[in-house]
Every structure is written in C-alpha cells, then in structure tokens.
Amino acid sequence: MATTGRDTSSRTARDALRDEIADLPEPLAQETLDFVLFVKNRHAEEQFLWEKVEETERYRREHPEDVMTVTVEEFERLTADNADEG
C-alpha cells in the first residue's frame, strides 16, 4: 500500500482519507468519489436485501400455513408457465 509518508497511526481513517483526497488532482478525485459512491451504494443494497431476507423469514415463522415445500420436479412444473411467458 502506497503512502505519502504521513503518520496515520493515531488518526482516524476519515481524517487520513480527507488529507489524501486534498492532494489529488481532479481526475483522481473524481475516480475516488465514484468509488466511494459505489461502496456506499453496494452497502445500502446489501442492507436492503438482508432486511428483505429477515422480513421473509419472520413472515414464514408467523405464517407457516403459507409456506409450500416442493420437490425440484414440482417447482419446475409450477414455474414452467412463467418461463414460457418470458
């Protein structure tokens, strides 16, 4: 990992990042911004998906009568109509 020689041992990552970004030429700053937004978006998406998983698990626990267990063959038969439509 390349460093600029600054001592970052007693500083927060946020402070070190702020200092590093301040020295970047504009094209690298834009690339860095794109990466930060990508990471934030990925985190938000993962959070959303996990919330949906937990919501589904909670619903299934509260409504076991709505849960259907099927074999692979039954699933393929039940979803074949949808595959033909797409």
Helix-strand makeup class: mainly alpha
Q: Major sheet: size, sense and barrel closure?
A: none
The number of strands is 0
Number of domains: 1
Beta-sheet strand percentage?
under 5%
Count of DSSP-assigned helices: 3
Low-confidence stretches: none
Q: In percent, how helical is the residue content?
A: over 70%
Computed over alpha carbons, the radius of gyration is: 24 Å
Mean pLDDT: 88
Shape from CA axes? Answer: elongated
Order of helices and strands: HHH
Distance between the termini: 48 Å
Structure report:
It is a single chain. This protein is mainly α. It has one domain (13-85). The protein has three helices and no strands. The protein has helices at 13-22, 26-62, 72-85. The longest helix is centred in the middle third of the chain and has 37 residues, at 26-62. It is elongated, with a radius of gyration of 24 Å.
Describe the structure concisely for a colleague.
Helices cover 71% and strands 0% of the residues. It is mostly helical and 86 residues long. It has one domain.
List keywords for this structure.
86 residues, mainly alpha, 71% helix
Q: SSE layout and pairings?
A:
Elements: H1 13-22, H2 26-62, H3 72-85
